[in-house]
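Field reference: sequence -> structure
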Amino acid sequence: MRVVFAGTPEPAVPSLRALAASSHEVVGVVTRRDAPIGRKRVLTPSPVAVAAEQLGLPIVKADRLDDAATAEIAALGADLGVIVAYGGLVREPLLSMPPHGWINLHFSLLPRWRGAAPVQHALIAGDRVTGAAVFQLVAALDAGDVFAELRYDVPRGATAGDVLTDLAASGAELVSGVVDAIADGSAVTTPQHGEPTLAPKLTQADGALDLAEPADRVIDRFRGTTPEPGAHVSLDGQRVKVLAALRGPDADLEAGQVALVGRDVVAGTGEGTVLLRTVQPAGKGAMNAADWWRGLRVDDPRIDLPGAVS
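Structure field:
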């Protein structure tokens, strides 16, 4: 079967490689245009574009699947479209152009967490089980019938980056199996059941850790926003990125109060504490939290709380 693949970030790469290694023919790869990366804003191809070039596959670069992109994709003559985290909407006439339409690998157990950031929202919400689903793409957001799914127990302490890495690997096998089933005519779909929840794209503001909340909730948000968009706190109005953190020990600390407990930097929350391992103050590199704390030169350092006057 002739397959066109659409994807952009690193979690989409395993699925592309699995399809390229299968008995099916990947006739083209659709990905977003090169984007400025890093402090020097160097134009950099997407991870999927890099993989496609390594595999010697034709590439269509488009940030929107407009008329021009649709014409390029139509010329590929694909029987099926496969999309994994492309970052754009597939609309008509492209949606129904391949004879078998498009299928989507989505990193949640639908209909829970429909949208752009399902893993991040699952961890922020404290979900201990999530998964992946392959469904038939339809005009409504992530609402199509499901071909196959897998359940995933979230490891203790895992960040969104960790979970996406795991689901990208297992999801590649899942999507490959669905493509095989569509090709041989054995594929069966099941309508989604249950109340949908939404997972819109996160912003930098979503990474703000509110230490007035209980420690478990703070850690859930840290895990869900790591590595992107990045967890952070503010101390005396200065942003500090939190790169590594976990649930802390019992300590008599007020919410936002930061202290050295033994060799560990611990911050009080609304209930319990958070242990800070690695931080990155504004304008500086990543550093051990204890080194950062010693350099504060403040008798009683406190992380800013929402609504507090600094």
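Note: The two ends are 62 Å apart (CA to CA).
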